[in-house]
Amino acid sequence: MKYPNNDRYANNKRKSFMVLTGLLLSQASEFGKDIFMGWKYGASMLSDGFFSAFSPIFLIYTTLLLSSSIVLIPAFVDHIENDDNQSSNLFYESTAFLIVLLGILSLVLFYFSDSIIAFLAPGLSEQSKLIAVNFFKRFIWVLMPTGCIAISASFLRSNNMLFIPSTLKFVGNVFFILILFYFSSSFEALSYAAISMFLMQFIFLVVFLFKTNLAFPTHFIPSKKTLNILLLFIIPILSIFMSQTVVLSERYYSSMLQEGSVSIIAYIGRIYSGFVNLIGGTVMGTALPALSGYISKGNFVNARDTITWNIKIVITVCLPASILLMIMAEPIISTIFSGSALTQVQMEMSYRVLSCYSIGIVFGAIMPLYTAVFSAYRSYSLILMGSTFFLVTNWLINALLINHVNILSLPIARTLSNIAVSIPMFLVMQKKVGKIFNIELLIFFIKVLAASLFMGLIVYYFQTILTDHCIIDSMMKKSGTILLSFLIAGIVFFVSCLILKMDNCLQIYFLITKKLRIS
Fold first, then answer.
1. Secondary structure element (H or E) that encloses residue 423, with its range
2. pLDDT confidence bin for 2, thresholds 50/70/90
3. CA distance 429 to 437
4. Which DSSP category does 141 fall into?
């Protein structure tokens, strides 16, 4: 399997590197933000209230970010390809449309704040619910800047400015951590930190756009074509919102469990979603512009090769990571939260939750690729069907398991939902773009799985030996042991790839971790 032909879209390795680096910074800072919260607030009424109020705001932000990519990146790319100078006009018109829409939405949400929190987290105690409502009323007013961030990120990606939109979260999270670090552990500190997280992204982005002279309209009169493009937002926004409601589902059910469950799901879900978003975001960020360009030119062979290549990237990175996280869940959690405000019982719950989340990493990371493919083909109805199926499946599984497995049912439900949606989505994608699954791809998967299992076995015995001989007795040694385990895992997996003659697998790792050169 060769990498797709060299052209403006698919073989620009610098693009992949910039997206990956930016997403790595943003996801690492998201992870750092939640770890910092765990150390200062633990799993308490205050943190439960924060996550219950913050999740719908972050859901709207994520929905806008993804839906604007789905609709606007292909449209921006078409304008850039045709060199018709309309991309800046579309940028301003779509931004104005979202500001008005989000302004109205903010007023409505503020008025119904009490009812919304009562519906989203019905099991919270009265004190936690009051905290959540107060948080929510403050967070609502950052929705308009988030709309501008979403449109601007798509605009920049279409103009090959990939690093800036990928690092926006990093900028916001740095301000979040700084505010919590310098202020007391209070309600006000958390509020200001969360609000500044979005405002700093917005300010950073506006300054960059004006400094690069990218976004200056030649006119500001909405055209019929622009209106038609904006109307396309309806289905993607609905689709992404439905698929992202898994977060609301987890907040809803975890609020009915013991105090602190909402926070534990949020902290550990960040580790899972951070990794999934890192790989899935890289795949979608580079695949969508490439596929849009290929399909607009009728080059379906290269489009299919691009899809296959990205499937291999997900398998190569996520399958060994899934096995490694399952094995290393306990030492990872006990190390990063040792000495934090989390109790020992909460830490034990946390590493069990992480083990369950880890099972579904491959299926979670592959979902953005399906979205990119159907977006490039403008098949938004297929995205909506997949999102609807995912939403219904997730809520049903949670409803069935919640009284039997308690907090572990939530990550299990997400994993089962991802599997249930991934299989039919893959079949539909293959029917649309042509045959992708073949014996070569199957053999590739089996080889990666074998190498991953062997790697996991070695790391498991390495950890067992250290634990049995009581070598790990301090935070420094625990951290060093985890880093050494990851190093051993990488070496074992690399050697396994050589033994199994997985040239494609090694090429993908070199592409991602070295100099982005195919050996």
1. helix 409-433
2. very low
3. 11
4. G
